[in-house]
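Lecture notes, unit on protein representations.

Consider one protein chain, 270 amino acids long.
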Amino acid sequence: MKRLFFKVFLIAAVVVASVMTSCVPQKKIIYLQKEQMSDSITSIEYQNKRSFDYKVQPGDALYIRVSSLDKNFSEFFNNSNNTMSSTTGGGNSSGNAGIYLNGFNVSDEGTIDFPYAGKIYVKDLTIDEIQQKIQNIIGEYQKETIVYVKLGLFNLTILGEVSKPGQYQVYQSDINLFQAIALAGNATDFANKRNIKIVHQTTEGSQIVRVNLNDADILSNPEYYLKPNDIIYVEPLKIKRYGFTSVPYSTIFSAISLAITLITFFAVYK
């Protein structure tokens, strides 16, 4: 009889141990962990200056608006801006989408077609550089004018262990990693937050960087703020093949109950 109970105990222990080791540890799930954070510390500051030095590439959309004391002059440019957006797929929208979509598409040659000036080469220029370049051109035709330039479609592709993977269009000048992951419905419990891959599109090709969202130091990492056309890949944990996000107590008790039933049956039969 003792031997029977020992077998039951041994099998139950093996089942419990295997299930427990298959659960995702909480330490791999929590964002922004910081070991030196204690009850006596209420806040920690992380320095990370936003530096938006993205260089425009073919396929990007630019919103350009001209403000002038001469109402007819400014309306000519701004109406042309809206007309151009409808011919390049931007359309006339309202709200934030309209602000960013009513713009000029950068051609494969790296140029935009601008009234009076014709084709302006903007590839590999920052938004500030493009604004100054157009400002100088417009200034030759009309004094007392101000040119505003913004980047239009901010495309992001989010793949892997997130609730809603896909391609997203952001109507703002910048976005950080947590905002991007929130767009995709947050990372799943099986996401490897310690090893998030970000693929940057560069003038020479692509660049892969890795970041750790479990570490609060990500807030001061230069990669915290994303760039247009970035691809974010959230890798799955290896444990996903046979793991659980939480302890499956019902499975444990069912396994133990089945083990007891089988051992009892064979013991009586024997």
